[in-house]
Amino acid sequence: MKLLDIAEVSRQTGVAASTLRYYEEQGLIESMGRRGLKRLFEPNIALKLSFISLGKAAGFSLEDIKGMIGANGQPKISRDKLFERVAELDDQIKRLQKLREAVKHVAECPHPSHMDCGKFQKLLQIGARRRPARAGKPSAPGRSSDKP
Protein backbone atom coordinates (compact mmCIF):
# COMPACT_ATOMS: atom_id res chain seq x y z
CA MET A 1 0.00 0.00 0.00
CA LYS A 2 1.47 3.32 -1.10
CA LEU A 3 0.94 6.08 1.44
CA LEU A 4 0.23 9.60 0.19
CA ASP A 5 1.93 12.62 1.69
CA ILE A 6 -0.14 15.60 2.74
CA ALA A 7 0.80 17.59 -0.38
CA GLU A 8 -0.39 14.74 -2.65
CA VAL A 9 -3.66 14.43 -0.72
CA SER A 10 -4.21 18.17 -0.95
CA ARG A 11 -3.46 18.20 -4.67
CA GLN A 12 -5.71 15.20 -5.40
CA THR A 13 -8.67 16.30 -3.27
CA GLY A 14 -8.49 20.09 -3.35
CA VAL A 15 -8.54 20.14 0.47
CA ALA A 16 -5.95 22.54 1.85
CA ALA A 17 -3.10 21.04 3.86
CA SER A 18 -4.06 23.30 6.77
CA THR A 19 -7.57 21.81 6.69
CA LEU A 20 -6.15 18.29 6.66
CA ARG A 21 -4.05 19.13 9.73
CA TYR A 22 -7.11 20.65 11.41
CA TYR A 23 -9.24 17.56 10.63
CA GLU A 24 -6.51 15.39 12.13
CA GLU A 25 -6.38 17.55 15.28
CA GLN A 26 -10.17 17.16 15.56
CA GLY A 27 -9.92 13.36 15.23
CA LEU A 28 -11.77 13.18 11.90
CA ILE A 29 -8.86 11.69 9.96
CA GLU A 30 -5.65 10.00 10.96
CA SER A 31 -2.20 10.13 9.43
CA MET A 32 -0.25 6.88 9.28
CA GLY A 33 3.14 8.39 9.96
CA ARG A 34 5.54 10.90 8.47
CA ARG A 35 8.03 11.23 5.66
CA GLY A 36 10.32 13.91 7.00
CA LEU A 37 7.95 16.60 8.25
CA LYS A 38 5.09 15.61 5.93
CA ARG A 39 2.18 13.58 7.24
CA LEU A 40 1.34 10.38 5.37
CA PHE A 41 -2.18 9.12 4.69
CA GLU A 42 -3.72 5.89 3.41
CA PRO A 43 -4.96 5.97 -0.20
CA ASN A 44 -8.61 5.84 0.97
CA ILE A 45 -8.28 9.27 2.59
CA ALA A 46 -10.14 10.81 -0.38
CA LEU A 47 -13.26 8.81 0.54
CA LYS A 48 -13.06 9.99 4.16
CA LEU A 49 -12.68 13.58 3.01
CA SER A 50 -15.68 13.16 0.69
CA PHE A 51 -17.70 11.89 3.65
CA ILE A 52 -16.70 14.93 5.71
CA SER A 53 -17.54 17.27 2.82
CA LEU A 54 -20.94 15.65 2.31
CA GLY A 55 -21.71 15.89 6.04
CA LYS A 56 -20.76 19.57 6.10
CA ALA A 57 -22.88 20.26 2.99
CA ALA A 58 -25.83 18.60 4.75
CA GLY A 59 -25.37 21.00 7.65
CA PHE A 60 -23.73 18.72 10.20
CA SER A 61 -21.01 20.12 12.44
CA LEU A 62 -17.57 18.54 12.46
CA GLU A 63 -18.39 17.15 15.91
CA ASP A 64 -21.55 15.54 14.48
CA ILE A 65 -19.53 14.10 11.60
CA LYS A 66 -16.88 12.78 13.98
CA GLY A 67 -19.66 10.90 15.79
CA MET A 68 -20.69 9.36 12.46
CA ILE A 69 -17.31 7.69 11.99
CA GLY A 70 -17.02 4.29 13.64
CA ALA A 71 -13.95 2.97 15.46
CA ASN A 72 -12.95 1.12 12.27
CA GLY A 73 -13.01 4.40 10.30
CA GLN A 74 -16.16 3.41 8.41
CA PRO A 75 -19.35 5.51 8.44
CA LYS A 76 -21.70 4.76 11.34
CA ILE A 77 -24.68 7.01 10.65
CA SER A 78 -27.78 7.26 12.84
CA ARG A 79 -30.90 7.24 10.70
CA ASP A 80 -32.69 9.14 13.48
CA LYS A 81 -30.12 11.96 13.20
CA LEU A 82 -30.58 11.99 9.45
CA PHE A 83 -34.36 12.28 9.79
CA GLU A 84 -33.90 15.12 12.31
CA ARG A 85 -31.69 16.91 9.80
CA VAL A 86 -34.26 16.32 7.03
CA ALA A 87 -36.90 18.00 9.22
CA GLU A 88 -34.55 20.94 9.87
CA LEU A 89 -33.87 21.27 6.15
CA ASP A 90 -37.60 21.18 5.40
CA ASP A 91 -38.14 24.04 7.88
CA GLN A 92 -35.24 25.98 6.38
CA ILE A 93 -36.63 25.48 2.87
CA LYS A 94 -40.06 26.79 3.96
CA ARG A 95 -38.46 29.88 5.54
CA LEU A 96 -36.37 30.51 2.45
CA GLN A 97 -39.37 30.13 0.15
CA LYS A 98 -41.28 32.73 2.19
CA LEU A 99 -38.28 35.02 2.14
CA ARG A 100 -37.91 34.54 -1.62
CA GLU A 101 -41.54 35.51 -2.19
CA ALA A 102 -41.17 38.57 0.05
CA VAL A 103 -38.03 39.76 -1.74
CA LYS A 104 -39.69 39.12 -5.11
CA HIS A 105 -42.71 41.19 -4.06
CA VAL A 106 -40.48 44.05 -2.94
CA ALA A 107 -38.58 43.89 -6.26
CA GLU A 108 -41.82 43.95 -8.29
CA CYS A 109 -43.80 46.31 -6.04
CA PRO A 110 -45.52 49.01 -8.13
CA HIS A 111 -45.51 51.66 -5.37
CA PRO A 112 -43.17 54.58 -6.05
CA SER A 113 -41.65 54.10 -2.60
CA HIS A 114 -41.41 50.82 -0.76
CA MET A 115 -42.52 52.72 2.33
CA ASP A 116 -45.94 53.21 0.62
CA CYS A 117 -46.39 49.43 0.25
CA GLY A 118 -48.51 47.78 2.95
CA LYS A 119 -46.86 44.39 2.40
CA PHE A 120 -43.41 45.93 2.76
CA GLN A 121 -44.51 47.66 5.98
CA LYS A 122 -45.75 44.31 7.29
CA LEU A 123 -42.42 42.67 6.41
CA LEU A 124 -40.58 45.41 8.30
CA GLN A 125 -42.74 44.79 11.38
CA ILE A 126 -42.05 41.06 11.22
CA GLY A 127 -38.33 41.71 10.85
CA ALA A 128 -38.33 44.13 13.79
CA ARG A 129 -39.88 41.46 16.04
CA ARG A 130 -37.10 38.98 15.29
CA ARG A 131 -33.97 39.28 17.32
CA PRO A 132 -30.81 39.25 15.22
CA ALA A 133 -28.46 36.31 15.75
CA ARG A 134 -25.50 37.15 17.95
CA ALA A 135 -22.16 37.42 16.20
CA GLY A 136 -20.45 34.05 15.96
CA LYS A 137 -23.62 32.12 16.70
CA PRO A 138 -25.10 29.76 14.12
CA SER A 139 -28.40 30.80 12.58
CA ALA A 140 -29.84 27.28 12.52
CA PRO A 141 -30.26 25.42 15.81
CA GLY A 142 -27.50 22.95 16.52
CA ARG A 143 -25.27 24.07 13.66
CA SER A 144 -21.81 25.47 13.95
CA SER A 145 -19.49 27.29 11.63
CA ASP A 146 -16.62 24.86 11.76
CA LYS A 147 -13.22 26.31 10.91
CA PRO A 148 -12.45 25.02 7.38
UniProtKB/TrEMBL annotation:
Residues 135-148 have a biased composition (Low complexity). Pfam families: MerR_1. Residues 3-71 form the HTH merR-type domain. SMART domains: HTH_MERR. It comes from the Bacteria. PROSITE patterns: HTH_MERR_1, HTH_MERR_2. Keywords: Coiled coil, DNA-binding. Residues 79-106 form a coiled coil. PANTHER family: MERR FAMILY REGULATORY PROTEIN, REDOX-CYCLING DRUG-SENSING TRANSCRIPTIONAL ACTIVATOR SOXR. This is Helix-turn-helix domain-containing protein. It comes from Roseibium polysiphoniae.
